[in-house]
Design brief:
With about 350 residues, the chain is mainly alpha-helical. About 70% of the residues lie in helices and about 0% in strands. The protein is built from 11 helices and 2 strands; from the N terminus they run H-H-H-H-H-H-H-H-H-H-H-E-E. It starts with a helix and ends with a strand.
């Protein structure tokens, strides 16, 4: 039984209701904050972290939290387009997006372990880019156009904004939320090392100089500085770890969005929507390779640890083969990569051992 299924079985009904209510409130608050950046259409924003939150919730806790996504999305959209049908259809699209992404990740990309390998990171990107985000964008824009909240002539532009916003929200939020949730469950290294905190401070410093309105560098001269944020991401991927890389990406992105809103970003375009779309494209292009690199490093480290363990076991077996006095203390020895090993019952002599081959 999986951890998600076990949680669902053991969690009391009242506690599940509380989780649904809390998840809906968090989704609603995040959605309302995200809709602040909508300019092309009141319901279409180029930054939509609720997608990442919804996928992480369903992936870590189960599809029984899908009603929380629907309620949160419905409430947020109803305040923008006060029409039950429009808000309801958009909420259905947001919910189906999370359900579809979660289903495909579990079926095709090892579930919550999706970020443990570069192939998993790539599969996650494909699922969000080609399946989940397009589904939500299509349902949402059709709902707006058919109910008169958007013109059909603007369908493509609104759809691209919606799709890219959901895509960016998933890539920015889901990895960090999933990895920190696994940390709280004791499945990831809990403490943050001192060098990680120093790296976060360095990333914030670079992001402040490159994006923020308090930077001493004139906005017109910051175009080249924006690329410096890639350096802490690469450092984190190579030296810190996957969780730290995902967290650093969130920190840098927050400062980058702040810069666009304040008008001090090197990604400023004639419209707010255009500025955010350019920023989101840059962020996604920088974050995905960093996550894949961090996952590759983790995978290589895991294989290295396994090899070391196997070498230690092989050395023990070699010592046992030349030390009859040590054999009675061993109950069972087995190692798959070895050509042969001795399997002995506790208390027997070496002559009583049986030759064993995997």
């Amino acid at each position: 039984m999986t951890a998600t299924a076990l949680d669902r079985t053991e969690t009391p009904v009242w506690l599940r209701v509380v989780e649904i209510v809390l998840a809906a409130l968090v989704y609603f608050a995040l959605a309302r904050a995200s809709l602040y950046f909508a300019s092309l259409n009141a319901s279409a924003t180029p930054i939509w972290p609720p997608t990442g939150l919804a996928i992480a919730l369903l992936l870590m806790r189960g599809n029984w939290l899908a009603p929380a996504v629907f309620v949160g999305a419905f409430a947020a959209n109803y305040l923008v387009t006060p029409q039950i049908a429009t808000a309801g259809i958009i909420a259905v699209g947001n919910t189906l997006e999370a359900v579809l992404a979660t289903f495909l990740i579990r079926r095709w990309a090892k579930g919550e372990h999706v970020f443990q390998s570069p192939i998993g990171v790539g599969k996650f990107a494909v699922i969000v880019t080609a399946a989940a985000a397009p589904l939500s964008a299509t349902i949402g824009v059709i709902a707006l156009a058919t109910t008169g909240h958007a013109a059909w002539v603007d369908f493509t532009q609104i759809w691209i904004t919606w799709w890219l916003g959901n895509l960016a929200g998933a890539i920015l939020a889901t990895p960090a939320l999933v990895l920190w949730a696994r940390t709280l469950r004791g499945e990831e290294p809990a403490p943050l090392a001192a060098n990680a905190l120093i790296s976060f401070a360095g990333a914030i410093f670079i992001a402040t100089i490159a994006f923020s309105p308090i930077s001493p560098v004139p906005a017109a001269s910051r175009s080249a500085l924006a690329f410096l944020v890639i350096l802490p991401l690469l450092w984190s991927a190579l030296r810190l770890g996957l969780r730290e890389t995902a967290t650093m990406a969130l920190l840098i992105s927050s400062f980058a969005v702040w810069g666009v809103i304040a008008g001090s970003s090197p990604f400023i375009q004639p419209t707010l929507n255009g500025s955010l779309l350019l920023l989101v494209t840059f962020i996604v292009s920088a974050i995905l390779p960093s996550l894949a690199l961090a996952a590759e490093r983790r995978q290589s480290q895991t294989l290295l640890d396994q090899t070391r363990h196997e070498l230690v076991q092989a050395q023990k077996l070699k010592l046992l083969a030349h030390s009859p006095a040590a054999l009675p203390t061993i109950s069972t020895i087995s190692s798959r990569p070895l050509a042969a090993a001795f399997v002995c019952s506790n208390g027997r002599t070496r002559s009583a051992c049986v030759r064993w081959r995997p």
